[in-house]
Design a protein that fits this description.
158 residues, mainly beta, Jelly Rolls, five-stranded mixed β-sheet, four-stranded antiparallel β-sheet, YtkA-like domain-containing protein, signal
Length: 158
């Protein structure tokens, strides 16, 4: 009887430890902008805001354009919510002709990552949700880049 109690206790303890270690909840700490704050009549590039490393994009008619600043050894994460399945096209263009900046990774809504990419990428959107694209310097090529760049994103429905 004592052996059954100890075994039962071990099973319950193992279950709680397993459940605690597999808690994959994450908190999204991106800044949100009210739709009223966005001028929907223009597709201009959003201005560079205080050097942030995480930027929440608001897609207007499936498109967004954002200026950001790259700092040596840092990366910038663009997050956006996709509701319509289709093809994602993204690009980064540094202000300087030889600026060392690229699309490093894309994180899907299920937190699976893909990459690295180059200055442009295309990706099939297979599920709705929040996507994140990481832009960084290519550490295998060129000099570190400190300067502004423009990130362009377009979702073309199927």
């Amino acid at each position: 009887m004592k052996a059954i109690t100890i075994t039962g206790f071990s099973v319950i303890l193992s279950f709680f430890l397993f459940a605690a270690c597999n808690n994959n909840k994450t908190t999204d700490q991106t800044n949100e902008t009210d739709a009223a704050d966005i001028d929907k009549s223009t597709t201009s590039v959003a201005p560079l805001e205080d050097n942030r490393d995480s930027i929440n994009l608001q897609l207007i008619n499936g498109e967004a354009a954002q200026e950001a600043k790259m700092e040596k050894g840092k990366h910038v994460v663009f997050s956006f919510n996709v509701k319509t399945l289709g093809k994602l096209s993204a690009s980064v263009k540094p202000s300087e002709p030889n600026g060392n900046v690229r699309i490093a990774q894309i994180f899907l809504p299920n937190n699976v990552a893909d990459g690295p990419f180059g200055p442009t990428m295309e990706y099939n959107i297979k599920e709705p949700g929040v996507y994140r694209i990481v832009v960084s310097e290519n550490q295998m090529a060129g000099e570190p880049y400190n300067g502004p760049f423009t990130f362009l994103l377009k979702i073309t429905p199927r």
